[in-house]
């Protein structure tokens, strides 16, 4: 009976996250009320407060459901014990873009983050968390690049900090633009080309070397 109750609670939580995803996508963060999410789920607002402290907590849980599994994979690839850091980074980058194009949940959540979340000072805790996540991503990229340099896969004089900033900006730009106008290009088809182009630049650009 306890197991069933726990399973029911997890199912309710999952339904609330699904509804949050749908409503935040439709209305944006600032214009969404907890009652909107409760109504979408066919539940009371009390059901939300049973599982989440407030709208911020609910939003974070919705994002984490998508972002944490991605972060775990990226973190594993940035480990200095990884024997093929450059190959794993390329594979991860390609698969990430292709899954973004084909996984509806991932696409909705990243659309919310990039286009439905207003950086207007009204959700300072969330904004601060986004900045932390942004910095952690850049740091993770740089660790992987340093490992690739140490393994002889990238130029010895590569400025890994500069290269990490360039990589983060390059892929963030692709994601932002495609989510805004997905009809502009086929991301599934273009993913490999876009990834190969960046890694060619990474290996050959004199502007990413130390002292440039």
Task: Walk me through what this model shows.
- It is a single chain.
- This protein is mainly α and 212 residues long.
- Helices cover 75% and strands 0% of the residues.
- Helix 1 packs across helix 2, helix 5 (85-102) crosses helix 6 and helix 6 (104-115) packs across helix 8.
- The protein has helices at 2-27, 34-41, 45-51, 55-77, 85-102, 104-115, 124-150, 160-180, 187-204.
Primary descriptors:
212 residues, mainly alpha, 9 helices, 0% strand, elongated, Homeodomain-like_sf, transcription regulation, transcription, TetR family transcriptional regulator, HTH_TetR
How would you concisely characterize the structure shown here?
With 212 residues, the protein is mostly helical. It has helices spanning 2-27, 34-41, 45-51, 55-77, 85-102, 104-115, 124-150, 160-180, 187-204.
Structural class: mainly alpha
Low-confidence stretches: none
Helix fraction? over 70%
Q: How many β-strand runs?
A: 0
Strand content: under 5%
Please tally the helical runs, counting DSSP H or I stretches of 4 or more residues. Answer: 9
Largest sheet: none
Q: Mean pLDDT, as a whole number?
A: 92
Distance from N terminus to C terminus (CA atoms, Å) equals 66 Å
Radius of gyration: 20 Å
